[in-house]
């Protein structure tokens, strides 16, 4: 192989869904590694709704993207050639390697990962996804045994881990997800206490019945009407964790704020957002703890693996229609 195939950013999908013309396919010669660099062969890419936001340059929490740069994204790769003392050929590494299949990369920006049965899990349950669930819940949601917790986007990569950590903490966990199959999986496989299919309607009424004492921990991944309905069902001293709001990521005009926010006053509740990157220095112990829970069978995870670098744009689009069932990955090699 002499060619590095890449997807470049070609458009800014602000206020609209992603489209094919937002990406440009190019093929470049593979670059030999200079001192401190390694040449890689990409094995897996991981996908996150935030990648659309990076293309739009919203939020300001990562460096701005430029049109014409390689599409940003995390990946796992094998070291093919090394000009660094940090890695040797055959090592498996992860990092923000972007949508390309034979990149040459600064070794210092990569992390060595173990080549075991959890290899692809480093992009999900042991990666940013798992870290988001772990730190967002423990530091902001602050679950106590006996709490009632509601998670939206519950069958997604982050939501499914959040709910299971909530169960480990001793909470009653109710998931809100799209469709009967996802809801059944949450209860039968992951041990959620209940699940509500938002696509069938009646979310607030069902939550009222399932959580008669109100919601102590509300984890929101989706925003919009579902979030507003759940804000109306908070318990006294509830903690509301604003992780994401995927229902607004494709909207041209932002909806009005949630009218039920006033319930925060009546319930003396707190609501906080967070960015997982703020906890990066603590990732190692969280990774160790989640690995232990996986080995003990207390955390289960699902991966939705698509194939072929040429399908990367389409794979990202799957997240916004709820086509993914589990952590969205793409197998490249
Ligand atoms: N704050 C942070 O640091 C941080 C870090 C990582 C991720 N996040 C956020 O966490 C959320 C989940 O990310 P993820 O990577 O784990 O993705 P994911 O949940 O695996 O995939 C996105 C899911 O969102 C649901 N969805 C899509 N459009 C929706 C809509 N209009 N209304 C309700 N649900 C909708 C779909 O599930 P259904 O089939 O159930 O509709 C889809 O599977 C995102 O909002 C993301 O931005 C935040």
Structural summary, described in words:
By secondary structure, the protein is α/β, with parallel strands linked by helices. It has two domains: 3-124 and 302-331, Alpha-Beta Complex (Quinone Oxidoreductase, Chain A, domain 1); 128-277, NAD(P)-binding Rossmann-like Domain (Rossmann fold, 3-Layer(aba) Sandwich), CATH 3.40.50. It has helices spanning 50-56, 128-141, 157-168, 180-188, 203-210, 224-231, 263-266, 283-295, 312-318; strands at 3-9, 23-29, 37-46, 75-82, 92-95, 104-106, 111-113, 148-152, 172-177, 194-197, 215-220, 234-242, 270-273, 303-307, 327-331. Strands 3, 4, 5, 6, 7, 14 and 15 form a seven-stranded mixed β-sheet that branches. It has a six-stranded parallel β-sheet with strand order 10-9-8-11-12-13, with helices on both faces. A two-stranded antiparallel sheet has the order 1-2. The mean pLDDT is 97. Bound molecules: NADP nicotinamide-adenine-dinucleotide phosphate. NADP nicotinamide-adenine-dinucleotide phosphate (NAP) binds at residues 48-50, 128-129, 132, 153, 155-159, 177-179, 182, 221-222, 243-247, 274-276, 319-320, 322, 324.
Task: Give the key terms.
single chain; 333 residues; alpha/beta; Quinone Oxidoreductase, Chain A, domain 1; Rossmann fold; 7-stranded mixed beta sheet; 6-stranded parallel beta sheet; 9 helices; 15 strands; binds NADP nicotinamide-adenine-dinucleotide phosphate
Quick take:
Helix content is 25%, strand content 26%. It is of the alpha/beta class.
Task: Bin the helical content.
Answer: 10-25%
Q: How many DSSP-defined strands? A: 15
Which architecture name of the largest domain does CATH use?
Alpha-Beta Complex
Question: How much β-strand is present in the residues?
Answer: 25-35%
CATH topology of the largest domain: Quinone Oxidoreductase, Chain A, domain 1
Biggest sheet details: 7 strands, mixed
Continuous helix count: 9
Averaged pLDDT, please? 97
Structural class: alpha/beta
Report the order of strands and helices: EEEHEEEEHEHEHEHEHEHEHEHE
CATH superfamily of the largest domain: Medium-chain alcohol dehydrogenases, catalytic domain
Total domain modules: 2
